[in-house]
Amino acid sequence: MATWLLAAMLTIGAAAVVIHFVNANVYGPEQQVAGYLEALQEGNGERALGLLGAKVPDSNAVLLDDAGLAASTADLQVLEVSEAARSANDRADVRARYILGGEERESSFRLTRTEKQWLFFDRWSFAPSTLPTVTVTAASQREATVNGVRVALPAETTTFAAFYPTRVEASYTSEFLAAPAASGIVGSAADTVDLVLTTEATEALKTAVDARVRDFLDGCTSARDRLAPPGCPFFHFTDNQVQPPIVWTITEYPTVDIRNVAGKWVLSPLTGKARLTATQTDLFSGMKSPLTVEKEFSFAARLSMGSGEVTVTPLID
User: Fold this and answer.
1) How far apart are CA 297 and CA 277, in angstroms?
2) What is the reported pTM?
3) Is 70 exceeded by the pLDDT of residue 16?
4) Which region among 53-67, 109-123, 170-184 has the lowest average model confidence (pLDDT)?
5) Is the per-residue pLDDT at 25 higher than 70?
6) Is a pLDDT exceeding 50 seen at residue 58?
């Protein structure tokens, strides 16, 4: 009888040890956090959201799965998931230490004990929350690349839901316009990361516009024997009689400056210098003399861009 009782007590004791071990190492809050971080590293947004149980705000979901999520955690290295700090009201706080974006960081997760599973094992769930957001602001274009995915920006500021911890990068690149990358780290459910894209004209656009402006001005100089070439920004008036050949040459081409004004790309006023050479006759004395005069000029032009095409339309009064 004593032997049977001892065996039963040992069996119960062993079962208690097993239950405690499984409870701590399989069903504990730390395991929930570790599983969530693993899902992020795998780029499995469905599993990550299922574990986190967070509400998804009204937003673009490109960062919540597939390539957008994979890029968010491409360099995530989990260093440690700490032992849960438990409180008497069935709550536990777990801290995760990791490297993301080349920096060591830490995030905290709150979980609650909700029920028992199979009578013995605790069930822990993440406390109710809403996913954090990332905003991308771009005043001058309606698309961008967010974590390697080309997305539409229907408004000047577009909101993206994100998991945490993740890293988000936004940029814009095209043949004629580009915005340097802006990035940020989402480290908690309370974070809001604001990325502002400052789009500028590319060298390809500046070169194309400069070529169009030079072609226009060179066309003006090809209009021989005109003191005022038609449709051109420079001219010369004199009381003397001017004999051909009348030759215009551009001595200083305008510097191209492309700016964004109220969402439209415009050219700053184009200024330069042109030289006129000819022979003139004084109407009072009849004496002839060389005529050489340099004229400063300025004009506006309208810029338009299409698919691989740039048009510059001079606006001459």
Assistant:
1) 16
2) 0.80
3) no
4) 109-123
5) no
6) yes
The pLDDT of 116-135, averaged and rounded, is 82
Task: Tell me whether residue 31 is exposed, middle or buried, using C-beta atoms within 10 angstroms of its C-beta: 0 to 12, 13 to 18, 19 or more.
Answer: middle
List the chain domain ranges. Answer: 16-54+77-126, 133-201, 203-315
Kindly state the average pLDDT of the residues 293-298: 97
